Description:
The protein is α+β, with helices and mostly antiparallel strands. The chain has helices spanning 8-21, 44-51, 55-62, 71-80, 85-94, 111-119, 139-144, 158-164, 175-192, 197-209, 211-218, 265-276; strands at residues 125-128, 134-137, 227-234, 238-247, 256-262. InterPro entries: Cro/C1-type_HTH, Lambda_DNA-bd_dom_sf, MLTR_LBD.
Amino acid sequence: MTSFVVDRTQELAAFLRTRRERLDPRDVGLPPGRRTRRTPGLRREEVAELAGVSVDYVVRLEQARGLRPSTEVVEALARALRLAPDERAYLFDLTQQRPPSADRPATAAAPPLARLVADLSPLPAMLVNHRSDLLAWNTEMTRLLVDFDTLPPSRRNAMWLCLMHPRVREFYLDRERVAREGVAHLRAAWAAHPDDRALTALIAELSAGNADFARWWAERDVKVNGRGNKTMRHPEAGVITLQFETLRPLQDPDQLLVICRAANTESRRALDRLYAG
C-alpha cells in the first residue's frame, strides 16, 4: 500500500510544479508569445522573475533538494503563483512557516458541544474533527444520512461515507463536486497535521479503495470549504437542497460544528416529511 506519511520536501516540489503548470502567462501579466511553449503553464524562469528569486532556487525547490524557504520567499511564491487563500495556507504549512497547532486531534466531543448539537434540533447538526471523523450528531442528521450508531467507530467519517458507504455515496446529485470539495479539504488537514497517523491511514485506505479519490488526491487541489449547498435525492423524502455552515469553537478549535438547513421551501417541506415519518 502506498505510504501517505507527509514528505514535506517532495510534496512542496510537486505542489509548486502543479501550481506553476496551471497558470497562463497572461494570468500574471506576461506576454504570451515570448517563445514557443512545449509545456503548459509558466516556465521556472518566469516564476523566478515574478517571485524575485533565482531560477536555480526554483529548480532546486521543484527537485526536492532540501531547501526550506523563508517566510518572505513563501509569500513571494504564493503571489507569483496566484495561490488562493487556502492554497497559500497549504504552502505555508508545507514549508513549516506557520506555528504547528499545540492541540491534540479531538477523538471525542466536548460535552458542551455535544449538548449544543442536540439543542440545535430540528436543524440537522453534527460535530467533526479536522479529519472529518463524526464526534456527535443529532437525530435529524441521522434521519438525513444514516444512523451513525449502527456503524463501527472506524467508519464514522464523513469522507468515507461520501465515497464508500453503499447508501450515502449515491445520495448527492452532484456527487463529484461534493467529493472533490471533501478531498481538497482533507488535503489541507493533511498538511496541517503531518503527525496524525489516523489521518494518513484514512488517506491511504481511500486511495487504495476508491479510484476517484486517488485521482482527485493526485491533482493537489486545496480548499477549506466551510459553507455551501448540497443537493441530495433522499430515498424517503425526495430531492433536498441543504445549506451548510461550519463553525470552529474558540475553546475547542479541532472540533467543527456543521449545521444544515433547507435552502428553499420545497426542501423545507421534504425535511418536514422526513422527520414526521
